[in-house]
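Form P-L/3: holo structure prediction, ligand adenosine-5'-triphosphate.
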Amino acid sequence: MVARTEEIRVERLRKVFPSHDYNKPAVVALDRVDATIKPGEFVSLIGPSGCGKTTWLRLIAGLEIPTEGAIYVGDRKITSPGRERGLVFQDPNLFPWLTVQENIAFGLKIKGKLTSEDQENIASLITLVGLTGFEKSYPYQLSGGMAHRAAIARALVNNPEVLLFDEPFGALDAFTRMKLQNDVLRIWRERKTTMILVTHDVEEAIFLGQRVFAMTPRPARVKKIIDINLDYPRKRDDQTFIALKEEVLGVLDFHNI
Ligand SMILES: Nc1ncnc2c1ncn2[C@@H]1O[C@H](COP(=O)(O)OP(=O)(O)OP(=O)(O)O)[C@@H](O)[C@H]1O
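OUTPUT (holo model):
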């Protein structure tokens, strides 16, 4: 199923977390962030630790309210979480007492029996994420990569127009991580969902994103947007890929850390 997608506009976004301690100042996590993300685009957000990447993603998800500014999906202002925006965290957060199938169905938030259409949707998502044969498995019976696949399927169950990834593969071994990156690309191309990925990994940002948003240290602002004009599937040892990696590292000033 192909999702209907709209442009995401981020306008003069500012997020301040007040301090609950007299001796500590408030934390300005984001300040004057402007961005436009095209319908169906894949963008990566990268920046120093603690700069405000997760906060930005949570604002798009509607889990936080901006202090100033706003985010729009099409002409709708985001004020709360919504089914059209799915979220995948670093921790798959599966319910241990539910099977893979039931964990995915949980995302539907419906009471009572699943319709045959719901069941078909869940079955096709299980195929899409490569978990055929594990429908009735419990989370303890899955590998780390399989648990992430189930989490991606759960996030896709409402056919969201935007999928938000918060360092989804940070805790996985390099091989599983690369495999899941390929799977995410395949899903993106099949579903045409807008993808926004927060990552610490420059290579991952370039391997997946059509554009990489490099952020400043806190408060996060967009320091530079790097266009990744490489065809998919991308080769990590390609000269242009390596040059782009150098460019992103340079923008982030990683060479001077
Ligand atoms: N609910 C909150 N209350 C207070 N401060 C918060 C809250 N959430 C985030 N912060 C602060 O906002 C700043 C940005 O945090 P955020 O998690 O967005 O950064 P990040 O770039 O995702 O970090 P990392 O790369 O290390 O995951 C940090 O200083 C953090 O302590």
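COMMENT: Residues 17, 27, 29, 47, 49-55, 218 surround adenosine-5'-triphosphate (CB under 6 Å).
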